[in-house]
Specification:
alpha/beta, 10-stranded mixed sheet, 8 helices, about 40% helix
Length: about 280
């Protein structure tokens, strides 16, 4: 679905794998809660071989692609008959196709791995490449290793009232009728946290005024950030984080903290890209 189409869809990358089916089920529920259309997207590309393909072989590949997509679309329509479900088969690498889709999407949803990725890898190359270039929030769906908690967690540093992570986290908590755990990530070892705590809670209050139905718990932490947010994920149904830290000396597209949580968090993770436009609570 391209910019200019009606509505901003939830886009799910689907390839028929178990991981992509989990992502599809999660994306269906996200679209249902938002009253948004759902786009089930299957990307295919020619195998990287020097052997030429006949027209018959090319048609077989296209038919297989449409068949896989059809399974995903049928599942979505069965699970959410009131959601507008669209199917797209697009030629190109999965990461490039989904980056393009993210421009007009409300959210892109994927599994941590797809067909062809090493089973032992906790996060595959498609997810990494998408997260490095996406223009909308990306949810990486892993099966939670703990019972539902009815809580969303968000980790933020150096917040301002227009914090992208807070905007997404409050909206996700509202949609789920869940509580929100907001973690202020201070520099590790900081002794006096009074000033950042006051600033943090003042900014949270701006969002609480808009999202009055969301019950918020705030925590100020000076312990290692990855450890803090892994513990928060253990007590949450969803973790919201940014794609990089402000003090990242290398300037990686995906910061070390984000990479660590994508590997280790025990619940789905929403990564909010810094490439998005600022979101204000007003």
């Amino acid at each position: 679905m391209r910019a200019g189409d009606e509505g901003r869809p939830v886009v799910v990358g689907y390839d028929g794998s178990k991981a992509s089916e989990q992502a599809l089920r999660w994306g269906i529920e996200e679209a249902r809660m938002r009253f948004d259309p759902l786009v089930v997207c299957y990307a295919w590309q020619w195998p990287s071989l020097s052997i030429p393909f006949s027209r018959e072989t090319a048609e077989i590949i296209r038919r297989m692609s449409r068949h896989v997509l059809g399974m995903g679309v049928d599942l979505a329509r069965d699970l959410a008959p009131r959601v507008r479900v669209l199917g797209e088969v697009v030629e190109g690498s999965p990461s490039a196709v989904l980056v393009s889709e993210s421009v007009a999407a409300e959210m892109v949803v994927i599994g941590p791995r797809g067909w062809g990725d090493v089973e032992e890898s906790r996060i595959g190359p498609t997810a990494v490449q998408l997260l490095s270039h996406a223009r909308s929030p990306v949810t990486v769906v892993k099966e939670a290793s703990h019972p539902r908690t009815n809580r969303v967690a968000v980790g933020v540093e150096g917040v301002s009232p227009g914090s992208l992570e807070l905007a997404v986290a409050f909206e996700e908590a509202r949609l789920r009728k869940a509580s929100l755990l907001a973690v202020c990530l201070c520099p590790e070892g900081m002794e006096d946290t009074r000033q950042p705590a006051v600033r943090f809670n003042t900014n949270i209050a701006v969002w609480e005024e808009k999202y009055s139905g969301v019950n918020v718990e705030t925590v100020v932490e000076t312990h290692p950030h990855a450890e803090v947010l892994r513990r928060a994920a253990d007590r949450s149904d969803l973790l919201v984080i940014g794609d990089h830290e402000s003090d990242d000396p290398v300037g990686l597209p995906i910061g070390p903290l984000c990479q660590s949580l994508l590997r280790e968090a025990s619940c789905p993770v929403v990564v909010v890209p810094s490439r998005m436009l600022s979101m204000s609570p007003w």
